[in-house]
Every structure is written in C-alpha cells, then in structure tokens.
Write a structure and sequence with these properties.
Blueprint lengths: L7 H26 L10 H54 L7 H21 L3 E2 L2 E2 L6 E4 L7 E4 L3 H12 L8 H54 L3 H27 L2 H7 L1
Antiparallel strand pairs: 1-2, 3-4
Helix pairs in contact: 1-6, 2-3, 2-5, 4-5
Length: 272
C-alpha cells in the first residue's frame, strides 16, 4: 500500500533517531561526569543503595577522626605520666640519698625542700586538660569505634590511681629527719613508682586498642568505597565503546530518516 498522509517508515526512523540521541546524551553525561548514575531515572535501586553507602563512608570518616583524637588524648596523657615518672624517680633518688648517715640535718633539709617542690609539681599535673577535657578525670570516656555506633572502647578512669596513689600518696613525704623516716619513705615512693608504671601500661594498652580500631575503620572505608564505586562509577572503556555505537546509530538514523522522507516522492511519479 502506498499512501501520502501516513509515512510509517519515516515515523519509525524518527523514533529510532530520537532514542539514539537520548542515549547518546546520557552516554556523554556519564563520560563527562564519571558517574554511571546521574539521576534517579538512571538506576533508582542503585541510587538508593549508593546513598546509604555514601552515608556510611562519611560516618566512617568522622569516626576515624574521633578515634584519632582519642589517641591524641591518650598520647598527651602518657606525656604527663612520663614527666611524672621523671619527678617520682628524682624523689626516689633524693629519698635514697637521705638515708646516708653522713648527711647533716641541713643537708636533709635541702633534700626536703626539693622533694616538696617536686610533689607540688606532681600534684598540679592532676589538673592537666586536653581541649577542655580532664586528662585524669573521674568519669570513663567511651570512644565509638564503628560507623554504626555499635562498638566502643573505654578509656579507663585514671583520676584515683594518679591522684590518690601517686600525687596524694607522696604528699607530706618526710626525709628531713632520722634515717628511719627516710627508709619508710622509700617504700612509699616505690609503691608510687609501681602505680605510675601500671598507669602507663594501661595507657599503652588503650592506645594500642584504639590504633587497631582505627586500622579497621580504614579497611572498612576502603571496602565501602569499592562497593559504592561498582554501583555509581562509570566503566570508561565500556562506555566509550557504547558512545561509538550510539554515534553510528545516530548517523545511520539520520540517513534513514532522510531516505524515508524521500520515499513519498514515488507517489509523484505515479501521478505524472
């Protein structure tokens, strides 16, 4: 059948050309943006999954920052304990020197003066802070170590151990009198050194645990980013091949539309 009012071949060619143009524009957009999904229309389900993965990635990054800050807190705390160790060691040395029977009362008084100053410095360390948070507070700090908040690491309370067992325990230490008092003081200082060593060991263990938690967060972030990439990132090689195919289809569609429009001219030959 040959008709003038309806050109089915031309309509079909125009439809195919329009479809090729739309797909060509999408391909160009994917290649220019680097993303396979540029709107919800491209992949509604994939976009929904990607949004959740992206949120998890951002939370993981924030958790990493929090863990790093907690490690810095512990490192600062250990720095104070390290200086406290130097002070207590010096007090221990002075206490031992005070047991020397050849020392005069004036000598012991000088030792006592230095000891008192060192103890005052040790006591002041109890009030040290990190960004407004007490390094030796009375509450346990709970550090979140997973992006969903399900895992935590507690930084144990060190206030009683450092203040009571070290700083306060040495307060009033007397090495200015008889050697018997000095000998008694040695046991007090030795106990303080042991408590201080325990505190530093606990601090190191907490740092180690948080460091491993930070490593796990890094690994989880990499895996989340990899999963999200498979959903949203465009395969450049595959999309480039698709772009070449669509370019050919566009050119072929344009040629066929022109050919279909010319087919109606056959009617004129029948009429003349």
């Amino acid at each position: 059948m040959i008709s003038i009012n309806t050109n089915t071949a031309s309509s079909l060619a125009a439809y195919n050309l329009s479809s090729s143009n739309v797909n060509l524009q999408k391909s160009l957009q994917r290649l220019s943006s680097g993303s396979r999904i540029n709107s919800s229309f491209d992949d509604a389900g994939g976009l929904a999954v990607s949004m959740k993965l992206s949120a998890s990635i951002r939370r993981t990054e924030a958790t990493q920052a929090n863990v790093s800050n907690a490690i810095a807190f512990l490192q600062t705390q250990d720095g104070v304990l390290k200086n406290a160790d130097k002070i207590v060691t010096r007090i221990s040395e002075l206490t031992q020197l005070a047991t020397d029977v050849t020392k005069s009362t004036d000598d012991l008084s000088l030792y006592q003066t230095e000891v008192d100053g060192l103890i005052n410095q040790l006591t002041s360390m109890v009030g040290e802070e990190f960004n407004g948070t007490s390094l030796f507070g009375t509450t346990t700090l709970s550090v979140v170590t997973s992006h969903d908040g399900g895992q935590t690491v507690d930084i144990s309370d060190t206030a009683d151990d450092f203040d009571t067992n070290v700083a306060t325990a040495l307060n009033g230490l007397d090495i200015s009198s008889a050697s018997g008092v000095a000998t008694t003081a040695i046991s007090t200082v030795t106990a303080a050194i042991q408590d201080l060593a325990t505190l530093r060991a606990e601090n190191g263990a907490q740092q180690s645990r948080l460091t491993f938690a930070g490593d796990m967060l890094s690994i989880n972030k990499i895996n989340l980013e990899s999963a999200n990439s498979r959903i949203v990132d465009v395969d450049i090689a595959s999309e480039s091949a698709n772009l070449a195919r669509l370019n050919i289809l566009q050119q072929a569609g344009t040629a066929m539309l022109a050919q279909a429009n010319m087919s109606t001219q056959a009617v004129l030959r029948l009429l003349t």
